[in-house]
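Structure first, sequence second, as always.
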C-alpha cells in the first residue's frame, strides 16, 4: 500500500496544480487533515517538539522518536506523508539510517536541511549552515539509500537568513545536481524573493507558510501562479489548538465547568465516530465469541 501511495504522490507532483499540505503533529491531526480532503500532509518536526516535549523547535527530538511518530501517522491515514527529518540527525551515515527508518515507516517524501546540528526552527535567529560539500554528500547518501525510487527527497536550504538570497539560490542549484527531487528555500523575506527563486530552480519547489514568521503569508493560489508545487502550513493547527486550549482552561478555571465551551468542541460520541469506532464494533462482532 505504501509503495502505491508514494507512486501516486510522485506522479501528482509532476502534474499541474499546487498541493496544499497542512501540518500534523500526531495521528489525530493527520486523520483530521485526511477527512478534510487534503491530498497530502506534512509531519512537522516543530509541532512534534512542541506537543511531545513542551519545548521549542531547537533540535531536541531524536531520529528514532521521529521515525516512530512517522509510522503512527502513516498507519492512521491513506494520504501521502511528507516528513520533516531535520538535518538527518548527524552526518551522511546518520542520514542513511534516517532515510531507511523513515521509508520503512511509510512516508512518501523526506525533507533534509542544511543547518548544522542541532538545528532550530528556520524562522528563529542564530542559525548556521553546514559546508556546501557536506550537504551535497548527505543528499547523495539519501538518494542512494532509498529503496523505493518513488520516495521523494526534499532538500531545504536555510542559507537565505545567513548568507543572503544569492547563496541560497546557488546551494539550491547544487542540491538539484546532487539528486534532490524537490527544493525548499526557507525563510524568504518577501514576495519578490519567492518569485525570483522560480527563475533559477528547474525542480518542483516547496513554500513554507508560517503565521508570524519571516516570510509573508500567501495563499496557495498565489504561490501556484508563481510556479510552486507544494505549500506547507506546518503549525497552523498547533497554534489554533494552543489558543483553543488556553480559552478552555481559562473558562474552566473561572467557572468550574466546561458547559460554556460545549459548542466549541466535539462531544464524546462525535469524536469516537470521527475516529471510526463503528469499524471496531464490527470487528468485535466478528471475532468475539458471545
Amino acid at each position: 500500500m505504501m509503495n502505491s501511495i508514494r507512486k501516486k504522490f510522485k506522479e501528482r507532483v509532476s502534474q499541474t496544480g499546487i498541493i496544499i499540505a497542512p501540518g500534523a503533529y500526531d495521528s489525530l491531526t493527520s486523520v483530521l487533515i485526511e477527512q478534510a480532503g487534503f491530498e497530502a500532509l506534512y509531519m512537522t518536526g516543530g509541532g512534534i517538539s512542541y506537543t511531545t516535549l513542551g519545548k521549542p523547535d531547537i533540535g531536541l527530538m531524536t531520529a528514532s522518536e521521529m521515525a516512530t511518530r512517522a509510522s503512527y501517522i502513516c498507519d492512521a491515514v491513506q494520504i501521502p506523508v511528507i516528513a520533516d527529518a531535520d538535518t538527518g540527525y548527524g552526518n551522511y551515515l546518520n542520514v542513511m539510517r534516517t532515510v531507511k527508518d523513515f521509508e520503512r515507516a511509510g512516508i512518501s517524501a523526506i525533507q533534509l536541511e542544511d543547518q548544522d546540528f542541532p538545528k532550530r526552527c528556520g524562522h528563529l535567529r542564530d542559525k548556521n549552515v553546514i559546508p556546501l560539500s557536506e550537504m551535497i554528500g548527505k543528499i547523495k547518501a539519501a538518494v542512494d539509500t532509498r529503496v523505493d525510487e518513488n520516495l521523494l527527497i526534499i532538500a531545504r536550504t536555510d542559507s537565505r537568513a545567513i548568507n543572503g538570497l544569492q547563496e541560497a539560490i546557488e546551494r539550491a542549484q547544487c542540491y538539484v545536481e546532487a539528486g534532490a527531487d524537490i527544493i525548499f528555500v526557507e525563510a524568504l523575506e518577501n514576495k519578490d524573493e519567492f518569485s525570483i527563486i522560480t527563475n533559477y530552480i528547474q525542480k518542483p519547489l516547496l513554500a513554507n507558510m508560517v503565521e508570524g514568521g519571516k516570510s509573508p503569508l500567501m495563499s496557495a493560489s498565489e504561490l501556484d501562479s508563481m510556479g510552486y508545487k507544494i505549500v506547507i502550513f506546518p503549525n497552523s493547527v498547533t497554534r489554533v489548538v494552543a489558543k483553543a486550549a488556553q480559552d478552555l482552561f481559562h473558562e474552566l478555571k473561572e467557572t468550574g465547568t466546561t458547559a460554556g465551551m460545549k459548542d466549541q468542541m466535539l462531544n464524546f460520541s462525535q469524536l469516537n465516530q470521527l475516529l471510526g469506532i463503528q469499524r471496531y464494533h464490527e470487528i468485535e462482532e466478528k471475532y468475539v465469541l458471545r
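Margin note: The CA atoms of residues 157 and 250 lie 40 Å apart.
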